[in-house]
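Please describe the entry underneath.
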Amino acid sequence: MGASFLPSPAFLAVFLISFVTLSIHPEPALAITRHYKFDVMLQNVTRLCHTKSIVTVNGKFPGPRIVAREGDRLLIKVVNHVQNNISIHWHGIRQLRSGWADGPAYITQCPIQTGQSYVYNYTIVGQRGTLWWHAHISWLRSTLYGPLIILPKRGTTYPFAKPHKEVPIIFGEWFNADPEAIINQAMQTGGGPNVSDAYTINGFPGPLYNCSAKDTFKMKVKPGKTYLLRMINAALNDELFFNIANHTLTVVDVDAIYVKPFDTETLLIAPGQTTNVLLKTKPHHPNASFFMSARPYVTGQGTFDNSTVAGILEYEESHKTIKSSHSPKKLPLYKPNLPPLNDTSFATNFTSKLRSLASAEFPANVPQKVDSQFFFTVGLGTNPCSKNQTCQGPNGTKFAASVNNVSFVMPSKALLQAHHFGQSKGVYSPNFPINPLIPFNYTGTPPNNTMVSNGTKLVVLPFNTSVELIMQDTSLLGAESHPLHLHGFNFFIVGQGFGNFDPKKDPANFNLVDPVERNTVGVPSGGWVAIRFLADNPGVWFMHCHLEVHTSWGLKMAWVVLDGKLPNQKLLPPPADLPKC
């Protein structure tokens, strides 16, 4: 008689697991290469009854949406058909060993000149969520921007229920004048630049502005559904509060990192930041429409655009409702209550709720030991007025901004090339101060001397250095919230507070378990923030305030991360089509 074969329990378990795995993941999680073409061109656009020729990608304002999956490679060919020099930054993309594709002009590349092109070539590694792309030269990002949406790998899910629909919501600023002329004039006179004429949602100012009722973003929703709103603040110079009247939002992700979900009526979002929220619509048609409004959070002493952008949330009528009412009735429109313009306590309360998911699948790998500590002051200051000129800055000076009192001078060659080819001499010096050279009471009565020093100075970090950085706001020319963006990395926000950072007491309260991970952080007005990151990405990485006016004034610096010993720890060689200066 033939021997019968009985499978062992272990075999059955393996078989079952493989069967379950196959049925959950019917498609393999294959990464693909996606090709996009960006033609940078002029386009006539009308807003606020004002028509002007603006710089766009593919004639669209805002620019086209890039959609990819985690693990995909992107090849984006940018062709410059305008007179301006152009470079594009993929905000929040880690750019592991691909710093040549990061995009800030004169930092990782020379800009793309008129008639020239460049292919941005990078792979999305270990990231999923909402990021965005924008011009990274002068103030051209006022019209050159768009969403960069990274879906999870095929067969993997969100750590929350799958939404009915996903909607990108991108805030911008509209200027009737040419933003390039505005900043050029301000840099010459030394005064503050003219402010924008409107904020926009997906390019539209909405009904609260002059002759803009037809230019309103409308979001149509069905009752009893969940929508994922992918929110991006692409405004030039303003942090924004956002609220949908009579609706609660659930925050699930910031800067393409999942967070522990929490409910809020109002969001705070700084330029450069993204926030994914779930919107659960009402179970039945509410017989009303609702404003989705945003207006600025203001802490500085300068002028600002004190206006409100509104879109409209509209519920779709069911067929029954349409049949029963012959004439479409005008529905009431509810308006949200937004916090006061200077509501720093709301801002603090909101940011303190942000915590990493810190799950087995999405861990928070916070550096527990620190190799190098840095203390940077960030704030405003002044430069002297040149002879034979009257200046419009404080007491006849020119406005400036600095990190550790160094106002960054943009080089005329790209820093990454200078570093990579060992030609840094005359381009930059590697001696950026790791602490303020002259300590003072940073948030107290400011000293009389507000003059900054000027230079192109960088910090050099060995590969895999574990960094702790304290960023301290100063009261020079007024305390102000500064959204600081670090290229090439995410960082953990391990602590923050008001007043001067106390190195003896404050570190005891650092959160090293589930701090939020971001690429852009608001340094609190009259306070400090502590971040940690691992310098595991070789290259030259820009760090700057994402309020464009402060960047123009010099609130920026850069980090050089040296190559590691292993081949996969070294910056890749530059592409053949890298633009020349």
Q: What stands out?
A: The chain is about 10% helix and 35% strand. The longest helix spans residues 9-24.
